[in-house]
Amino acid sequence: MERRFKTLTACFVLAAAAQLCRAQTPSVIEHIRILLWSETDAYPGLADAQDVSAGVYDYPEKRLKMLAPFLINGMVHGWNFTYTPSDTLRAVEEYFDFSDILPFGSAENDITYTQPWIEDGKISSWVEFTRTQQMLRDYDLWASINHPVISGKGYGKIADGFDGITNGAKEALKEAVRSYYRTKIKNKPKEITGKVLIRNQPLIGIDAGRYMVQLDFFLETDRIIPYTQY
Known about the structure:
The structure is a single chain. The protein has one domain (8-225). The protein is built from five helices and nine strands; from the N terminus they run ααβαββββαβαβββ. It has helices at residues 8-12, 16-23, 58-76, 133-144, 162-182, and strands at residues 31-39, 79-84, 95-100, 112-119, 122-130, 149-157, 191-198, 203-207, 210-225. Strands 2, 3, 6, 7, 8 and 9 form a six-stranded antiparallel β-sheet that branches. The chain has a three-stranded antiparallel β-sheet with strand order 1-5-4. Strand 4 (112-119) and strand 5 (122-130) form a beta hairpin.
């Protein structure tokens, strides 16, 4: 079996693979191995659902090939974030944004998808990526320096497709950042900027008709900008 979804159709009919896959365990350090899934059918309102020329497994394959690089880059290079807490007295609305620290680039081609199986309307697959020596040194720095560990949970609309998962990840990161700094900063700052690295197996599920994304991070604070005057 080739490894990058070239023989997915044949692989899906091998029911025995499901038992093999469930018996294996995630890994997040040198050889990243995480379990991801995608619905077999696109949400009715999505453009992908209107593509009648698509093959049976084109939609879940496309979704997994979008989701895997997004999360693995968060595990390998990490994300920048900018956070402004809401402040009613100053009429300041909450603001949060995040972005890749580095683009994943051609490293995306080294992601492999192994032993997929179908169950309950979803296609699941082990997604694997081996860090380069430089990536491994970067991870060791994150893990060895006294970086706080934070975690959060976020939600996104299933109707938004892939964006629903990225929105859930954004909300999970915002919740993790907000919860951490609330215990560390007495007065609300004007802005907080920093970096995070996903440190554990990302968890994605469906809860009350929404995507649920749960993430753990190493945290590095870049700067905290206070208000200079009231």
